[in-house]
Design a protein that fits this description.
Order of helices and strands of chain B: EEEEEEEEEEE
Number of helices of chain B: 0
Structural class of chain A: mainly beta
Largest sheet of chain A: 7 strands, mixed
Strand content of chain B: over 45%
Order of helices and strands of chain A: EEEEEEEEEEE
Largest sheet of chain B: 6 strands, mixed
Shape of chain B: globular
Distance between the termini of chain B: 37 Å
Oligomer: heterodimer
Structural class of chain B: mainly beta
Helix content of chain A: under 10%
Radius of gyration of chain B: 13 Å
């Protein structure tokens, strides 16, 4: 089974802090994704990556950056956390190619910014 | 307008009932669709995927796509309390899915014992 793990389940940070959310997948997937999930808004794509050192903006990249130095690891960085970044953050990965790319999700990190 | 629309519910039905969960989509280029199930405080798990027309069955679950009306459905037969969760429909942002998924907002389903 594909395993996607996220470094923390719950995180509390203060406004202005730099925050790192880590994601690791163990199935050699090329593609990795960061989403945030908010009540009434659903899941929204922040950033994604096709390959090591590659990154692409999703629908809501403002206030975030990402890093992919190794194939299995994809980090989401909040340069200066703000209260409107309080959310559930979900990492996902998928294999390249074919018509039916399926994303596998991690358990999520619930981030609260005070 | 979101590309995938879904009624957030909650939808509450008695145990054993047939459940119908629905989404509509606006992008004719979508080639396949997915249903994810998300339990409280967990990440979404892939339940089913289906190509752009027809039915797909897996145990008690049937996914259906009506391309002409841009309508996606998930049916659950003999519903169980363990089926209580949020169900999300999704479609790939670009053809192959490597650019991520666009999700409906999710329908919260409650199966009453």
């Amino acid at each position: 089974d594909v395993k996607v793990t996220q470094s923390s389940r719950y995180l509390v940070k203060r406004t202005g802090e730099k925050v790192f959310l880590e994601c690791v997948q163990d199935m050699d997937h090329e593609n990795m994704f960061w989403y945030r999930q908010d009540p009434g808004l659903g899941l929204r794509l922040i950033y994604f990556s096709y390959d090591v050192k590659m990154k692409e903006k999703g629908d809501i990249p403002e206030g975030y950056s990402v890093s992919r130095e190794k194939k299995e690891r994809f980090s989401l960085i909040l340069e200066s956390a703000s209260t409107n970044q309080t959310s559930m953050y979900l990492c996902a990965s998928s294999l390249n190619g074919g018509r039916s790319t399926r994303e596998f999700f991690g358990p999520g990190t619930r981030l609260t910014v005070l | 307008q979101k590309e995938v629309e879904q009624d957030p519910g909650p939808l509450s039905v008695p145990e054993g009932a047939i459940v119908s969960l629905n989404c509509t989509y606006s992008n004719s280029a979508f080639q396949y669709f997915m249903w994810y199930r998300q339990y409280s405080r967990k990440g979404p798990e892939l339940l089913m995927y289906t190509y752009s027309s027809g039915n797909k069955e897996d145990g008690r679950f049937t996914a259906q796509v009506d391309k002409s009306s841009k309508y996606i459905s998930l049916f659950i037969r003999d519903s169980q309390p363990s089926d209580s969760a949020t169900y999300l429909c999704a479609a790939p942002i670009a053809g192959g899915g490597a650019d991520g998924l666009t999700f409906g907002k999710g329908t919260h389903l409650i199966i009453q014992p």
